Amino acid sequence: MAEDYEYRGLMAQAWDLLRGDYSTWPDRPFYRAIIQGRGGAALDVGCGTGRHLLDYLADGLDIDGVDNSPEMLAICRAKAAAAGAAVDGRLHLQDMDRLDLPRRYETIFVPSGTFMLLTDLTAADTALRRFHGHLTPGGLLVASFNSRLWPGRRTPPQMVWSEWYNLAEKPWGQDGAILRRWIRTRYDHDQQLEHEENRYEVLCGDEVIQSEHHSRSPCVRWRSQAQAVADFENAGFTDIRVTAQDTFEPAPPDEVRFKVWGTRTG
Length: 266
Known about the structure:
By secondary structure, this protein is α/β, with parallel strands linked by helices. It has seven helices and eleven strands.
């Protein structure tokens, strides 16, 4: 497993807190419906702290998870223990492009743009082939993509850092402290890569008592619909289709957030 995994320290510890209530996120019922409709075992790629996995286990679904952050998986195990959920043998510490699990799955899903964290094209191709090899014959891969990552319609300039801005903040602990996340980004439009820096601060009053700087440069590679479909084709998937956002409707050509579906035949 790579040692430079991204989700560590305050980034991992604050992950759930800064995202709030997951229960209304539309991808939650979306992936659940796919898994329930197909039956069999499912794999949550980039399961993190378990926002999908623990919910689906509570529904009685047969689901495993894989993530490359030991810290995120530790949080997932702690949440599972608090909820009385059995995750022994279900959580795996591996990179996507080195996936090597003992089971095969009817459904593999890669939510939240997790696949786009593979910024190296060779690693991305290898990961798709690993997913293909971990599916049962007729098994389905569904992965989430974006065709651009910046907010609004105005395209930011080539490789120019944005100003730092406060992305989120929440009360932290029992002593009145505040956890704050700052972020700045820049975009390489030629290579379709986002570069990102994050600063996490714990404040008591106006004093910063803890601070961490996290940098991934690059951190995400976006894709057009045509590029994502071609990646699936190159990895051996068939019956490929593209749906819009967290729906089962075909994606229009200008859809920014989309899912790509592919089947393993044989």
